[in-house]
Every structure is written in C-alpha cells, then in structure tokens.
C-alpha cells in the first residue's frame, strides 16, 4: 500500500500548492473516516510536525456536523460558511464527426476555476465565422468575438474554423481537478445545428450557475450575428440544462402515483411476514429449550417433541407463500407443543427431587458412620473414603443437583451405598488390629516389669531411669484398658515404651563408660602428684611443696573410698580439680625456680661488672669514677644477700640497674676519651632508575643527598642527542615533544637484553625513538641528525647519564670519584648486571659495585635504627645499639621493575633470605590505561601524540590514586573523546591483573623459604608505585607494621654500602646477599646444577663434569641461567678431548665464581686446557675500550651542557635578586 500512501501525501501537497497558505500556518489536522486510524497514515501526516486532533470520533464526525449545520439553518443562526469549488469547469466545442471528416480541434474555455467561492454564476459567448470562398473550401471559424472585431461583453473561447456551409456543432461542459484538461470528464453535452446562409457570424450564449450544494445549471442560447449592424439576432431557442440531472420531475411524479396502488399489498405482505417470523422465532426457541432440557426430561419425550417441531419447520420451508390464517394455525400448534414440553419437565423434576431426597438420607447415614469411625480408626483407607464422600457433598454444594437427571442421582446413590460397605469392612478390620495390639503390648509390659535394666543396679542414676520407665508403663496400661483406643495409638505406645528402654540402656551404658574413664583420670592425676614427690636431685621438691602434694594425694584416696558409686560428672569434676592443683603447684615450682635463676643472673652480672671495672684502663676511668660505680654495684650485692625471698619483679629491677650502670660506664668513657675520626674520604651511591636518578654521598659519618640539577635532587633519565650536543636530564625531558625522535628514555628497560627478548618486544611498542634489530642479539638506538645517522647501545646512553652524575659528584666533593655503588633491581640477570657495570666503566668509574635495591633500603633502615646516640657512631663503636633478631619484607616498585626480598636482621648482621621480582613497574599501570584509550578510540597515534598521551595518562593515574577522579588542569588536559576511558572503574579493571601478579609473587617469595606472614615484623615500601592505594591496603591488611621510605633511600643505601665495603671503621653493619638465579652446565644434553638459587654471595664453585664420548673431538659445554619462566645460555666453551677416565668417558672441571655484585666469571680447567670463558655480553672487551674513547667526546658535550645550566641558574638567581631589590626599593 505504499503507493496509496504516497498518493494521499501528494494530494495533501496539492492543497498547499493551489493556495498561498504555508505549512507552518497549519495548527492541527482533523481526520475523518475509519481508514484515518491507520498508523502509517498518521505517521505520514505528522511527518511535517503537524498535530493530529484526536478528540473527534472519526466515524461520527460527519454526521454530527451535518446535524449541527441543519440546526443552524433551521434557527437562522448568524454564521458564515465559505465553501469553494473542488473542480475546474470549462466548455469545449468541436464539429460533429459524422458530418466532417477533418480532424477535430478541441477548444477549451475555462468558466470556473478551482477554489472559487460558492455560490457562483456567470456567462460565456461562443462565436463562429464563415470564411470566404478564396480558400479551396468554404470554412467556418469558431472563436472569440474579438477575433472578428465584434463588440460584445462576456468571456469568449478560442477560435475554431469549419470549411463547410452547413454543419452540426457540439458543445461540452467538462470538469478537471488540476491536470489542465489533459484528462477530463464530460458532464454535459448539447448540439447546435445551423446553416450559414447569408450569415457570416454565429454566437452561442452560455449562462451557468453553481449553488451552495455544488449543483450546476446551464442555459444555452444560440444567436445569429449580423455583420452589417453589428448586433446579434436572437431567433434561436432558449435551452436550460442541468448537469447530471438523474430522474426528471415527470419520472418522479409517475413513481409517486404508482406507489399508492401497491400500498395495500405491501401492508398485507407485512402482516404475513410478521406471522411467519413469529412462528419461526417460537420454533427456534422451542428447539433451544429441548436442547438444554436433556437432563430435565426423558430422552424419549425429547425425540418426540423434536419430531413435531421439525415437522412444523419443514411445512414453513415448503409453504413460503402461506396465508396469514395458515400461519396462525401453525402458531397455535407450536403453542400446544410448548405446553406439553413444560408438563413433561415438571413431572421429570418431581422424580429427580424424590431421588435426591433418597440420596440425602443415604449421606446422613454415611456421615454418622464416618463420625464414629474417626474416633476409633486411624488409617489411610479412612482418608480415602472421606475424600470419596467429599466428592458427593461437593456435588450438592455446587448446585449441580438442580440441573441433574434421574440416572445421575441413581449413580450417586450407588456410589454412596458402596461407601457404607467400605466403612463397615474397615471397622471390622480395625477391631481385629486393636485386639492383636493389646495382646502384644501386654506381653511387652510383663517382660519389662520382671527386670527393667539388668547389670546397672549399682549406678547412682539407676533409680531415676526406673522411675521414668514405670510412668511410661502406667500410661500403656491405661491405653489398654480404654475401649476407645485405636490400634494405632496402642502400637505407638508400644513403640514409645521400647524406645525409652533403648535410650535408657544407652544412657546407662554411656554413664558407666564415662564413670570408668573419669575414675582413670582421677588416678592419673594422683600419679602425677606422686611423681612430683618421687623426683630426685635438682628436681626434688622443697618441704613446703612436698607436704602440699602429700595432702592432695591423701584427700584423693579418701574421696575415692567415699564415692564408689559417684556419677561420671562428679569423677570428672574431681579429676579437673586435681589437675588444676597439679598445674598450680607446677606453676609455683616454676616461678620459684625462675626466681632462683634470676637471683643467680643478678649475682653473675654484678660480679662480672665489678671484675670489668677492675680491668678498665685508668686512661678511660679515674679512681673516683670507678669507686662511685662500685658503690652502686656493691649496694645491689647487699640487696641480693638480704632479700632471699624477693619477688621476680624486684630482681628484674635490680638487673636493669646493673644494665644502667653499664650504660653509665659507656657514657663516662665517651666523655673522657673521644677519638677523632678525621677523614675526607667520601663514598658515593647512585640510584640509577628507569625514570629518574639520585646521588647520595657518605662522608664524616653522615650521608646527604646531592642536587643533580638546579634545586632538584632528582634527575630524569632522559638523554637528547642533537648533532654534537648531548643534553641530559630535565632539559631533555622538557623538550622531548619538540625533539621526539632524538630523545631517549626508559633505557634501563633495554639494557642487557637481546632483540628476541619478550620484554623488549613488548617495550618497543611504547617507545618513540628508532631501534635497529639488524645485528643479531644486539639492540641499537638510532638518532638521525641533519648530516649523520648514528647508532648507540643502551650501555652508551646509560653511560651518558652516569657521566653527568659523576661530574656533579666531583664538583660537589671537589675531588675525583672513581669508586661507586649503583643500585639494580634484585631480579636483574647476569647480562643486565654486566651491561650496567660496563656502562659505569664507560662513564669513567674504575671501581664499580652493584647493589640490589632492596638490600640498599635495608642498609639505610638499619643505619637509622642504630644511629641513636647523638654523636658519630663510627668514632665510638661501643655505643652501637644491637638490633634483636627480626625478619623484614622489603618491597621496591619503581617505574620499570619490581623487587621483593625477605631479609633477616641478627645483631646488625643483614642476611638476605630470598629474592624475587617482576619485570614491570609503575609504567605498566600507565600503559594499561593507555591501551584502554587506544583500543576504544581505534585511532593510530603518531610518535608525538603517543608520547604526550603516555605523559597525560601518567598524571591522570596519580590523580586517580589521590582523588579517585580525573581533574583537568591547565597544564595537562586530555582529549574529550578519551576522558570516558580513564576513570577509577577502568583503572581498577584494567590494572587488576597487575595487582594479582604482585600478590602471587609475594606468595612465592614466602613459600620458597617456608616463611609465614606472622613472622614478618615490619614491611619496608620504597618507590612511588609501591605506595599505590590498593597495594598499601594489601600490606596494611596482611602485615602488622608498614613503613614507607622516600625515593632517595636507595641512593643513601648505596653510599652506605660503598663505605661499609671499603672502610673497616664502618663495618659495624655486616651484610650478605644471595643469588637470584640458578646456574647449571650442559654438555651433550646432560645438565648439572652448579649453583643453586639463594646461594650466598660472593661464592665460587668447582664442578667436575663427566661426559660420554662418541668420538675424540671437541665438545661444546654451555652455562645456563634459570629463573621464573626463564632459561638463557650465558656462556659457552669447547672441551677438547682428554684422557678418558674410563672407556668412552672423559672428565673436566669448571670453575664458577659469582662476586658480590652478582656477576659471573667462568673458567674451564682440565689436564690439557685452562682457560677463562667469556660470559656473553652485548659489549665485548675490545669494544669496551672503543666505547670509552668515544665517551670522552660525549663527556665534553655533557660538561658543556652542565656549565651552560650553571650559568643559566646563576643568571636566574641574579634576575630574581634584582627583582626582589626593585620590589623592596
């Protein structure tokens, strides 16, 4: 129907095209007609924003409007209605086809246009002219009078020519909706026939009128026109024509006269039809009545009456023209049949009532029997019978009996009679069951009364259970005597009686068993007390405790004799009493022994202290000081002698006094003799981080953090290379967006790795500089300048960072620095450690030590703890506080790596128990958010956009951690389309797996060394990412104490390590690290573990390898490094054939050494060969020298950059000073 909807829409559009009305002026649309309810039509009409008026009933609106209009006409209400013509009316004229074979030419004259107000009237003239004979044939011209210079009023049509002297001329009235008469409909046609004798012109006058109802009338007057006098000659007929007249007035009058003739016949026919309708209606009702009376009368009568009714119905069908008398006779017959039907129904109803009364009597009898049966019978069968009875009673209650038949009632009576029979049978069965149950219960009672609980007469609770049993027997006898008792109640009584006996016997058995056990417990408690008396030697009791124990033993013996039949609870309570007394005595004995031991400890401490005073050098203490201290010590000895029975608390107080004397002695020694430790030697530690670096210096027994840049202790790990200029630190980072391809960062993530490393393959997706993978197993960083394109190894870039740090340290200390300790993650493998050391050597350091970051934090933690005396602890080692044994957990999560260590502290000895780590840090949390934005936006970022987005995401992560929401700041603003993907919900969901990996790794750290969480005294957190909210909550929830360290702590620990390692004066703290990886050798696919994980460092191992030979040639041997899901070949050697140990077998030795930095040395030794094996590294020995030479050039550029930075800082300070001076002025 789509085309129909489009047509409707087209006509709606035409309404506006024909007028000057704008669509926006339409307030609402009124729909009329049932089809306007179509949803598609409503949707089509409301497409232009119109409102549909749905208050009108579309079906009744037209009729209601017509009624209102009629009422207004009748009352002559002052209302104006403007109606317009829906069509266009026109006249056409053409020659009769039969008289002229020339082609007809239609001429259209519009007399009334569309949308003209009604009523409308007017006239039109049609003119014809006879042409002269100069043309081949005579012709007639038809057209507008002005065409022939005729003066007349009115409107005229176009011309038409006729080449003949006589013709018949047709004039039509047509209508058209809007197609400009391309297609039109003829409403009226009239013909003008005339001869052109002596007449040159001929006129036709057409008058028309269209009334308010839209009905048209036309008057046609043919006129001759004399061209001499120029006036029409009206000698033709005057014709009045109405459009589509339908019936004429004469036809209507004839129809009225004929109607009176048939009126009587119609009246008679009406009566006959009425009688026939009455008869058919009664027959239909009677048939319906019989159909519903199937249960109200006999079926025989129903068939008889059906036949009679059908006979009358057939007669009516056969006699369609029956007279009124015949029909009335049949109506009487139908009435007689109806009376007979009612009589039969009444008789049948009487029979049904009698049957129902009989059924009620039967039900009354059943109810009486049921009441009696319920009091004596308790059976499922009785419930079934009761349900059957309820079916019949429900039949009565639902009023089904009022519309039932005799057969139905008889069926119910039979059903009720069967119920009575079932009740009688059930009653007989119940009587027999009751009799048998009484006999069985009587036998059970007789058997119980003879001996209720044999074998338990000696128990104290025996009478109690017998009393309960007698009560139950009395109840059973009463049930037997009661004639109204059912078989079920008698059986239940028997079951309850037997159950009581069973429960009582079980309880008595338990009581006897518990009684015996409790008695044994009492005897054991007595034996324990006796054992105390029998103790000899040092464990022998004092007379006071011995007499107390003997009294307890005697009282226990008396109690056992007096309570031979006591309950088990009494035995248990007495055993508990004896046990408590035993432990009380034992506790008093232990307290007494402890008091004696404490007295002995006090005495020994005082004596040893006095001996120490006598051996003290007089240069340390003078005689007066010694005598004063001795007086206090001798006073403690006198108190010890006089207070033999002193309490433990008092003795401990005296022991503390002795300790205070020792502390006092140390303080006096410090006051008397202060050694000067004068050294200018400084020790340097560097925290070489993925994102930032710190420098710490330890000198004169103090540590301090050195500012690497202007007013900043931290230096970003950024290097920018532009031509010959090398920029390191903040300036490189600040200009990274403008110099994106020449700025290198996160170099620590690449150092010591190969191009096949999985971490490298993942890392390079987030880097913006060019990385070359052309050389096997080597990573090269490309920097393209205007003239050249140079490549740098990660070691060279790291060396540039260290060069600047070294230069700053030398400027600060005013001396050359060659020794340094650099921090590395604890999970760094051999290649990464070796590459880091090479980078330091390239930077100009000659003595390089590497220290795990977790151990560095621990060294600072221990130093802070023992440095409590307000003086230089290295100058007075005797003042060092000794730390008690404790285990701590150190967690270091930086930007690129995560390290976890379990460390044990034993009297200032720091021993690492276990290491583990993860190959990611805080940057991985940023990248999870970045990946979420990248995946959802599906937009390829260029290098600059990628770098900027990573920086913005990092800032947003910090805001989420701090505030829980993202806050736009003028400095860093995210794109609008990415904000929705960075929220606390996305942050938690995207980074959830990283938290799970941290927890899993911590679990492995504890499981590997069989340690538990409760053994951890304190957790040390270092690194920004270790203080994330979720991680801090985890540590606070699972550990007793958590302490946070700032980012500078690792550098301080490295400086302390350098001092401790290189100077004996600082070795008040001793430490030992362990190996983070496992090492093995492999020869001809035979593996042998050389060094296991958690081996103490430094270490060296000899390993004798035996290999079977197939031929006497060279055998490759590999050194393997094992970690978590990690296996790597770090060295390879070739063993030449040697003398076989035995047939087809050779042996050789491998020497493996791991220094304190975790770097491996490998030596192959046998009878013929002894050679050092080079461990695989990205930088070889010869290449290292070349890189050091290149580094000298880089050093000059870095130094120049540092000098420029200093000048800039001085200039900035000068400007700031001058500005302050001007402001003050």
Outline the fold blueprint:
Layout: H1 2-17, E1 28-30, H2 39-45, E2 51-53, H3 61-75, E3 88-95, E4 107-112, E5 120-130, E6 140-143, E7 155-156, E8 160-161, E9 166-176, E10 185-195, E11 201-210, E12 216-226, E13 231-233, E14 239-242, H4 249-261, H5 263-292, H6 299-318, H7 324-376, H8 380-397, H9 406-450, H10 462-481, H11 487-534, H12 543-562, H13 568-614, H14 623-642, H15 648-672, E15 683-688, E16 692-699, E17 702-706, E18 715-716, E19 719-722, E20 725-728, H16 730-734, E21 743-744, H17 758-763, E22 770-772, E23 780-784, E24 789-792, H18 794-813, E25 819-824, H19 830-843, E26 847-852, H20 853-866, E27 886-893, E28 898-906, E29 909-918, H21 922-937, H22 943-963, H23 976-979, H24 984-1008, E30 1016-1022, H25 1029-1038, E31 1042-1044, H26 1049-1062, E32 1070-1074, E33 1078-1083, E34 1086-1091, E35 1096-1097, E36 1099-1108, E37 1115-1123, E38 1126-1135, E39 1145-1154, E40 1160-1165, E41 1170-1173, H27 1181-1224
Parallel strand pairs: 1-2, 5-7, 15-25, 25-26, 27-30, 29-32, 30-31
Antiparallel strand pairs: 3-4, 3-9, 5-6, 5-11, 6-8, 9-10, 11-12, 12-13, 12-14, 15-16, 16-17, 16-18, 19-20, 19-21, 22-23, 23-24, 27-28, 28-29, 32-35, 33-34, 33-37, 36-39, 37-38, 39-40, 40-41
Helix pairs in contact: 5-6, 5-7, 6-7, 7-8, 7-9, 8-9, 9-10, 9-11, 10-11, 11-12, 11-13, 12-13, 13-14, 13-15, 14-15, 18-19, 18-27, 19-27, 20-26, 21-22, 21-24
Describe the fold and architecture:
By secondary structure, the chain is α+β, with helices and mostly antiparallel strands. It has seven domains: 1-75, no CATH class; 85-97 and 106-145 and 166-246, Sandwich (Substrate Binding Domain Of DNAk, Chain A, domain 1); 296-452, no CATH class; 459-594, no CATH class; 683-872 and 879-924 and 996-1066, Nucleotidyltransferase, domain 5 (2-Layer Sandwich), CATH 3.30.420.40; 925-995, no CATH class; 1077-1179, Sandwich (Substrate Binding Domain Of DNAk, Chain A, domain 1), CATH 2.60.34. Strands 5, 6, 7, 8, 11, 12, 13 and 14 form an eight-stranded mixed beta sheet that branches. The chain has a seven-stranded mixed beta sheet with strand order 31-30-27-28-29-32-35. Strands 15, 16, 17, 18, 25 and 26 form a six-stranded mixed beta sheet that branches. The chain is flat, with a radius of gyration of 63 Å. About 9% of the residues have low confidence. InterPro entries: ATPase_NBD (IPR043129), Heat_shock_70_CS (IPR018181), HSP70_peptide-bd_sf (IPR029047), Hsp_70_fam (IPR013126). Residues 317-376, 641-671 form a coiled coil.
